[in-house]
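FIELD: query
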Amino acid sequence: MIDNRSFSFSMPDWITGFFGNLPEKFSGIDDAMRCAVKLSSENVRCGTGGPFGAVVFSAADMRPLGVGVNLVVPEACSVLHAEIVALCFAERMSGSHSFRGTAALCSSSEPCAMCMGAIPWSGVCALYCGARDSDVREAGFDEGDKPPAWTDLYARRGIEVHRDVMREEAVSVLREYRRCGGKIY
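FIELD: result
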């Protein structure tokens, strides 16, 4: 019998220690992105999912609110992308389904089509991206159909988009994942 009363997913064991060792506040955007890229790298190194990481933080004081890694394969769930996982974590910790412009998101790569739709609903006021869509596609991933001017669409919703933040570092994780024969889904 299927128990449909609840749904949960498990974060990799190493995430608890990772989250517990985050600084009280990030020193700046590069520090927050370094964290997102490190999450993606650890996920690859530990074999616990895809090469993507994300961090949600307070826009006012850079305080970390939640982290996420890609859990699609280990949790057998196509929607568990790093951005979604980080947003779920941060929303649950905050007790609200929307940040109402008080939080920002750092992602090791630009959002796929699915995450692109979820991010505005989360209420973040800014998105910082490492690798570009083209980098992710070059690694073999299908990012879905996205409007070419997606950053303008976000701007109309009041979401600032900053691209290429530590892009080379983020791309190196994608390349390592591909080099090691990571599963492309």
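FIELD: remark
The CA atoms of residues 91 and 97 lie 6 Å apart.
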